[in-house]
Amino acid sequence: MKKKIVLAYSGGLDTSVILKWLQTEYDADVICYAADLGQGAELTEAKAKAKKLGAKKIYVENLKEEFVKDYVFPMFRANSIYEGEYLLGTSIARPLISKRQIEIAKQEKAFAVSHGATGKGNDQVRFELSYYALAPNIKVIAPWREWDLNSRTKLLEFAAKNKIPIMKHNKTESPYSVDANVLHRSAEGKVLENPWNRPPENVFGISKSPKDAPDKETIITIDFKNGDPVGLNGKKLSPFNLLEKLNQYGAKNGIGRVDIVENRYVGIKSRGVYETPGGTILLKAHRAIESITLDREEVFTKDELMPKYARLVYNGYWFAPERVMMQKAIDFSQKRVNGQVRVALYKGNVIVIGRKSPNSLYDEDLATFESSNYDQRDAEGFIKLNALRLKKNKMKF
After folding, report:
1. pTM of the complete model
2. Where are the alpha helices (DSSP H) in the chain?
3. Do residue 12 and residue 153 come from a single domain?
């Protein structure tokens, strides 16, 4: 009986070549696995292609609801954002893909798992850290670190030699390296590799340019329960359907486009263009509901934890004990994060125009500039106590 390898398979050039390469180099049966995370790709075509290329078995699974409920929403409870701009759309998908891949490997009694990530990027780290966290003794095969097919030209030559069907670029196919799921769409490569070049409009695949967005505000209301969005405009929606609907609102209004040069975990700077329309709205709305439901020190503590949490997600440590520990603290803080946020969407902007909660800590009587039960004379002692050390230091500037 032949050995088995489970390959994370997309149907693109790289993983199609890897499928054939694994069969020949390892004399193994290859089981292909593709996850539907709301990327909009036609996975039926990928399944047919894998079968044609001799895959022993093909798994194509709908993980959309699990992805949003158990990965995206927990990350957004932390208000996670990497290096001030990136909402971690690619990063957060990798642990779920890896988890299911390991489950299939155990089910199929496979000796190894494989992926198509290159040796330069973050994804190799994210996949493999997750693999080892879930199956410490699993063998990992990373073809890009083993073979000599180190260019697109060589990949195409291998494909032609082995009769692997490859789609030719056409007007509807992105000429960039694209990753997509329900949270985001990213583009890298080609003209984008020069960080001085402005991204041409064909880089963007899901959102309108802000200049082409409607000249009128779109106003929506988001309902929150325990820190998660649960309803939109008064209608309850499942996690995936809610995020998908936010994407539609955001894309129409030119929201969520960012152009960044980020620091990869492997030490390389990388330029990427991201579209995260629904996530951009969600982050703004979540911070708004937290602003009236969390204590001041809870907010400050969460803001101190967030960069560390975001780096853990970005670098592939979703299953690390420190991320789990931080998640428990974050989730505890979200028990009172209930209520509604109203936002106006306009030409790339998300404008909070209202927030309310049954758990609100906001006290209008204390905040008012009119008369209240606040004794302003109390501030004098407060200020003097806090000035003690400053007086002692007598710093001169």
Report:
1. 0.94
2. 13-25, 43-52, 64-67, 73-77, 93-108, 123-134, 152-161, 239-252, 277-293, 296-315, 321-333, 364-367, 378-393
3. yes
pLDDT above 90 covers a percentage of the chain that reads 84
Residue in 36, 65, 98, 67 with CA at minimum distance from that of residue 316: 98
CB-based contact 259:72 (threshold 8 Å): no
Give the number of other CB atoms < 10 A from CB of residue 203: 22
Identify which has the larger pLDDT, 66 or 153.
66
Please tell me whether residues 148 and 188 are part of one structural domain: no
Please tell me which residue in 94, 257, 271, 323 is annotated as part of the active site.
94
Catalytic residue among 10, 14, 29, 336: 14
Pairwise CA distance, residues 4 & 22, whole Å: 10
Catalytic residue among 29, 80, 123, 270: 123
365 is catalytic: no
- Tell me whether residue 215 is one of the annotated catalytic residues: no
pLDDT in tens, 150-206: 887 899 999 999 989 876 543 344 568 889 999 999 999 889 999 999 999 999 999
Which residues pair with residue 149 across a beta bridge?
none
Note whether 302 and 78 are within 8 A (CB): yes
Q: How crowded is residue 147: how many other Cβ atoms within 10 Å of its Cβ?
A: 15
Short-list 159, 350, 368, CA closest to 255: 350
- As a whole number of angstroms, the distance between CA 260 and CA 131 comes to 29
Is residue 393 domain-resident? Answer: no
| 14 carries an active-site annotation | yes
Structural domains counted in the chain: 2
d(CA 359, CA 336) in angstroms, rounded, equals: 6
Q: Is 303 a catalytic residue?
A: no
Whether residue 122 is found in the same domain as residue 268: no
Q: Give me the catalytic one of 36, 70, 177, 342.
A: 177
Q: How far does CA 173 lie from the centroid of its chain?
A: 23
Q: Looking at the structure, do residues 206 and 271 belong to the same domain, yes or no? A: yes
